[in-house]
């Protein structure tokens, strides 16, 4: 194993850069926001900005990235009922729709007789 | 005259400030390193009109601004993490001056040392598992009216059961992938699956894993991911990295 990739002359590389695989560097905005807004060290600075207090646009982003536990802590649970976010609820919704369709089919059959 | 503050990107140990000389800071600033008791905070000046309490409250609602700052923040953290053990700070950690920065390094010294011990020589890899898009059942050619109620219900039930079976087997695959990767890394975390509206992908994300991996084992880890992807053609496995150890450099226990 060769770790002597001499990337920058001024500094010793702290880790050996991934060699052969030309894997795309992480640049996906979803991944970056997830990490810089929801992960990492939290130390209160002098500028008091509680990221959890920001509303409107970022609250939407935050809802998409915060952990389930945190969302519950914040009293946010609409995602439980959002068919896009919850497979089980989607199944229930499907079942409800199917039942309604079935009732309609029965009713129209009855009135036709 | 506009007031400035010190924006903190990351805390590192044994960081040569020279290596950051060519890395762009936020807001066209210059990166500097504030050292205190063996810890090095990577900072740059920011305008408090833009990064003060009021400014941030306004700007964080502005997605283009947020994206630029998030990418800029990440780029500095990336540059630092490839040079020294690094604990990334959450976006928008700002002190008024270097004394404020040193105060934080003092107050959090031992906890930060612990975090740096945990991540030293290690990087984070992101592995996601997506469900393969399900083929649409070709049922449209039989007009519903011609089907008896019982047959209709039966067909619907069979479809639902088939889908549930598919979904639960995909979830089992995701669990298996996570277990295999966690066994080959220093630590593994399951993050909340990202919403399709954020990923822009139609496939459902079944697993959003973060793994702390020894730096020299990065290639072997990526190979393992490739093997798992080949072994499970029924799901899409995506590997990104190495990342700075965002998901493992937390003061709370991960």
Automatic annotation (TrEMBL), chain A:
The keyword Transmembrane does not apply. InterPro entries: Gas-vesicle_GvpA-like, GvpA, GvpA-like_CS. The lineage of its organism: Bacteria, Bacillati, Actinomycetota, Actinomycetes, Propionibacteriales. It is found in: Gas vesicle. Pfam families: Gas_vesicle (PF00741). It comes from the Bacteria. PROSITE patterns: GAS_VESICLE_A_1 (PS00234). This is Gas vesicle protein. The keyword Cell inner membrane does not apply. Keywords: Gas vesicle. Its main location: other. Residues 1-26 are annotated as: Disordered. Residues 15-25 have a biased composition (Pro residues). Transmembrane segments: none annotated. Belongs to the gas vesicle GvpA family.
UniProtKB/TrEMBL annotation, chain B:
It comes from the Bacteria. It is found in: Gas vesicle. Keywords: Gas vesicle. InterPro entries: GvpL/GvpF. Pfam families: GvpL_GvpF (PF06386). Its main location: other. PANTHER family: PROTEIN GVPL 2 (PTHR36852). Belongs to the gas vesicle GvpF/GvpL family. This is GvpL/GvpF family gas vesicle protein. The lineage of its organism: Bacteria, Bacillati, Actinomycetota, Actinomycetes, Propionibacteriales.
């Amino acid at each position: 194993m060769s770790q002597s990739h001499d990337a920058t002359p001024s500094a010793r590389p702290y880790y050996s850069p991934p060699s052969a695989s030309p894997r795309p560097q992480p640049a996906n905005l979803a991944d970056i926001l997830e990490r810089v807004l929801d992960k990492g060290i939290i130390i209160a600075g002098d500028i008091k900005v509680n990221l959890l207090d920001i509303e409107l646009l970022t609250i939407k982003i935050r809802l998409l990235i915060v952990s389930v536990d945190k969302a519950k802590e914040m009293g946010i649970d609409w995602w439980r009922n959002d068919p896009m976010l919850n497979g089980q609820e989607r199944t229930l919704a499907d079942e409800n729709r199917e039942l309604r369709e079935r009732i309609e089919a029965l009713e129209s059959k009855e009135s036709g007789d | 005259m506009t007031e400035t503050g010190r924006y903190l990107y990351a805390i590192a140990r044994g960081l040569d400030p020279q290596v950051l000389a060519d890395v762009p800071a936020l807001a066209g600033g210059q990166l500097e390193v504030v050292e205190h008791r063996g810890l090095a905070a990577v900072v740059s000046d920011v305008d408090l009109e833009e990064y003060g309490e009021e400014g941030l409250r306004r700007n964080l609602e502005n997605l283009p601004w947020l994206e630029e700052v998030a990418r800029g923040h990440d780029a500095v953290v990336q540059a630092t993490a490839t040079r020294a053990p690094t604990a990334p700070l959450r976006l928008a950690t700002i002190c008024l001056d270097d004394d404020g920065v040193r105060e934080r390094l003092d107050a959090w010294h031992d906890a930060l040392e612990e975090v740096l011990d945990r991540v030293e020589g290690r990087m984070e890899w992101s592995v996601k598992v997506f469900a393969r898009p399900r083929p649409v059942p070709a049922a449209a050619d039989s007009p519903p009216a011609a089907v008896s109620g019982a047959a209709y219900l039966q067909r619907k039930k069979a479809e639902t059961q088939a889908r549930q079976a598919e979904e639960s087997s995909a979830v089992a695959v995701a669990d298996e992938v996570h277990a295999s990767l966690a066994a080959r890394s220093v630590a593994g975390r399951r993050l909340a699956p990202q919403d399709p509206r954020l990923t822009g992908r139609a496939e459902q994300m079944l697993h959003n894993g973060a793994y702390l991996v020894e730096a020299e084992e990065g290639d072997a880890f990526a190979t393992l991911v490739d093997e798992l992807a080949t072994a499970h053609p029924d799901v899409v496995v995506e590997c990104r990295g190495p990342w700075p150890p965002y998901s493992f450099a937390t003061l709370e226990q991960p």
